[in-house]
Amino acid sequence: MIVVMAHKASEIEIDRVLVKLKEAGFQIHLSQGVERTVIGAIGDKTRLRDLALEAMQGVEKVVPILQPYKLVSSAYMDGPTVVKVGDLEIGGDTIHVMAGPCAVESREQLLESAEIVRRSGATLLRGGAFKPRTSPYSFQGLEQKGLEFLAEAREKTGLRIVTEVLDPRFLELVAEYADVLQIGARNMQNFFLLREVARAGKPILLKRGPSSTIEEWLLAAEYILAEGNRDVILCERGIRTFEDYTRNTLDLTAVPVVKYLSHLPVIVDPSHAIGKWRFVEPMARAAIAAGADGLMVEVHPHPEEALCDGPQSLNGDNFNLLMTKLHDVAGVMGRKLGNRS
Ligand code: PEP
Ligand code: MN
């Protein structure tokens, strides 16, 4: 349930409501906006009537949240959440593009990738140092060395770093280097990991599981918000269907649906959804037209030599072309595109 306090509710009035809710065993999540205070309370609904909150001074209304997820629900916030990554704002007017190789393979490969994506207007650099590979015999990532190269690329280009955390054992290490911690599709329902990563106090990119419904995805995000971390960016990256021409099926319906159900920003990863580089551009355009707040795109200076996901990676020229087209679509949507002018 949400208790919306009146515009001019005093500290004392807010406190009285908080005390009453806590005494009744409710878990409290306070949201103090510029306009008003909103109190999220999770607990036994049947006790609501006894509490008579609406009769209390300073309370404007009490709104039940019927969905199983509460804190991620759009009912919980007055407007969309903007996630700050350094000076970047994800979920605001600017569409941010996170681009880079699937995996950090070497210092040269990463620095070259970073320069390519920065030049074309990306604002974040992606690249896995720990890779969740289907086969144990595939390249698993450079681990700490990879993180060090990412940090060097940030230093040289000013790009922010987004990289995946696979396991709580490496969380401290990854959090030392990353600006955004990525939870990969395969780990979307690794609830223990979600809780741990939430506590690192950094923005989190939560990918949708390949076989997850929108509700399951939002409930996974709820785990993070319930730990007190509100900086969650949702990422649609394709779901598994009977279609096998493409790697997955990009569920673009998720963009407007999630933006309706939740206040969290939503981005789209067309690379992992489609799995073939030539279809990345049209679907990236469609994602922005559907209202996505950003994109994650795989870019490699030499896709034919990539150790991971080469077939879906754009080379520098194709990424630049993509950004030129996205700039136009963003303009039609009344938005700006990253660093592209
Ligand atoms: C990735 O972005 O590096 C990745 C592994 O993607 P996903 O978790 O969506 O498969
Ligand atoms: Mn990949």
Structural topology:
Elements: E1 2-5, H1 11-23, E2 27-32, E3 37-42, H2 48-51, E4 59-63, E5 83-85, E6 88-90, E7 94-100, H3 107-120, E8 124-126, H4 144-157, E9 160-164, H5 171-177, E10 180-183, H6 191-198, E11 204-207, H7 214-226, E12 232-236, H8 254-261, E13 266-268, H9 270-274, H10 280-289, E14 294-298, H11 316-332, E15 336-337
Parallel strand pairs: 7-8, 7-14, 7-15, 8-9, 9-10, 10-11, 11-12, 12-13, 13-14
Antiparallel strand pairs: 1-3, 1-4, 2-3, 5-6
Helix pairs in contact: 3-4, 3-11, 6-7, 10-11
The structure holds phosphoenolpyruvate and manganese (II) ion.
Structure description:
By secondary structure, the protein is α/β, with parallel strands linked by helices. The protein has two domains: 62 residues, Alpha-Beta Plaits (2-Layer Sandwich); 255 residues, Alpha-Beta Barrel (TIM Barrel), CATH 3.20.20.70. It has eleven helices and 15 strands. The strands form three sheets. Strands 7-8-9-10-11-12-13-14 form an eight-stranded parallel β-barrel, surrounded by seven helices. Strands 2-3-1-4 form a four-stranded antiparallel sheet, with helices on one face. Helix 10 runs parallel beside helix 11. The site of phosphoenolpyruvate (PEP) has 11 residues, from loops.
Write a brief caption for the model.
The chain is an alpha/beta fold. The protein has helices spanning 11-23, 48-51, 107-120, 144-157, 171-177, 191-198, 214-226, 254-261, 270-274, 280-289, 316-332; strands at residues 2-5, 27-32, 37-42, 59-63, 83-85, 88-90, 94-100, 124-126, 160-164, 180-183, 204-207, 232-236, 266-268, 294-298, 336-337. It folds into 2 domains: 2-63, Alpha-Beta Plaits; 83-337, TIM Barrel (Alpha-Beta Barrel).
